[in-house]
Amino acid sequence: xxxxxxxxxxxxxxxxxxxxxxxxxxxxxxxxxxxxxxxxxxxxxxxxxxxxxxxxxxxxxxxxxxxxxxxxxxxxxxxxxxxxxxxxxxxxxxxxxxxxxxxxxxxxxxxxxxxxxxxxxxxxxxxxxxxxxxxxxxxxxxxxxxxxxxxxxx
Length: 154
What we know:
Elements: E1 3-6, H1 12-23, E2 27-32, H2 39-44, E3 49-53, H3 59-72, E4 77-80, H4 95-122, E5 127-130, H5 144-153
Parallel strand pairs: 1-2, 1-4, 2-3, 4-5
Helix pairs in contact: 4-5
């Protein structure tokens, strides 16, 4: 049994991986911007699932989530999945939207990695899984900012 942290676990890939880890008997800290969206997981696995509110573009939210995760225990598997797209031509991108997508898709996951990696090194084990995108190597039209965040994460 391992302790997992899965960001963006309220839907999609994050939800699927959290479910697989829980079904396999692991303990899983699951994050979402909204705790209500994690209710399905926490009701189904009340002894194994640990919900944490997390907004990766907000430094204060990251600090609070890490403090709450200290109650969960040491993380063996960190899966950074939370993220979103932003459709805009590069020359038309809005500064605030660009900053926010980088904070969510790149800098937030990097902060989590920097926090949990020392423990993994100390125990000589662990895994960090960053969910990326094919856009990191072949961007679609209007996806330059999204693609660049995923390429940087890789």
